[in-house]
Amino acid sequence: MPLQLRRLQPGTAVTIDAPARLHLGFLDPNASLGRAFGSLGLVIDTQGTRLEARLAERERIDGTVSDAEHERIALCLARLQAAYGPATLAIDVVHAPRPHTGLGSGTQLALAVGTAFARLVGQPATSAELASLLGRGARSGIGILGFDSGGLLLDGGPAGGLHQSVPPLLARQPFPEQWRVLLVSDNAREGLHGAQERRALGSLTPFPQRLAAHLCHLVLMQILPGVAEHNFAPFAHGLTEMQQTIGEYFASAQGGVFASPDVEHVLRAVAAERTAGIGQTSWGPTGFAIVASAREADSVLVTAREAARGMPHIECSVVAGRNSGAAIRSAETRAPRIDAA
């Protein structure tokens, strides 16, 4: 029997900091050996989601959320109440990344809401259980696994189709502290999602087994060993080749190897100057260039901004990897308030 947790008092606020992730590529979209997808991903130290929640007399959803995100939070709460019993929450989203940019914002938001709800009502629930309940992790488990642990992660894809289980963790490596990630985002675009994503996936030809084998070889014998040994060059070369291979496969659905030609232009300019692991996270439009040090990151940021001159919709920034999962805090407020209005 799981330990029964105590329901928190109405004056207690639970704060969840859920980290963003980069989806670095699928291994086998066609399930040539019976398991679909399989994902490589990296948790990063910025662009995450923070929300604060407390028990209340009336449901309230405030903060930096769009109408669509407001609806998603309300749907999450309805599913949580159906599964774990009635509880009314007041939720304030302090900050969240722009949705559909490849940073895993939907999974972050769902797990943050689910975790806060479970803590407030005293319900023991794992991230995998919450993800299944809230409809996350159908293809990739990187956001769920990253919520728990951070780091560079490899999952095995869902077993028995898209809706059977959360993909299992196969490998986790701490991301080297000195390495940095240049993010290049096109603020005029969104990545494919929802019905558009499903149609795009359905339009693709079967992924060749020989390419799936090649991607698995790159991950197992170049990318993961490079991270484990802090050996940057094989990691960068392996990741760039993996991204190019999977990008060519998705090109017909997203309009090219990169969803944004301007993001591609900036990243190609960076790659022409130095060794970097370049690619696009998920459906984009955010791209990345991983480099070996903070000094190199300063240099590539200058290169990227110069390449993006005259493109006000292109945003460039440098982030680090994050080797820890979500931060969860509970605290009594100084003066318990009634969220009745």
UniProtKB/TrEMBL annotation:
Which stretches make up the GHMP kinase N-terminal domain?
76-141
Note the InterPro entries from the entry. Answer: GHMP_kinase_N_dom (IPR006204), RFAP_synthase (IPR004422), Ribosomal_Su5_D2-typ_SF (IPR020568), Ribsml_uS5_D2-typ_fold_subgr (IPR014721)
Q: Which UniProt keywords apply?
A: Kinase, Transferase
**Segments forming a coiled coil:** none
Superkingdom, taxonomy of origin: Bacteria
Annotated GO molecular function terms are: ATP binding; kinase activity
- Report the protein name in the record: Beta-RFAP synthase
Q: Which organism is it from?
A: Paraburkholderia susongensis
Query: What taxonomic lineage is listed for the species of origin?
Result: Bacteria, Pseudomonadati, Pseudomonadota, Betaproteobacteria, Burkholderiales
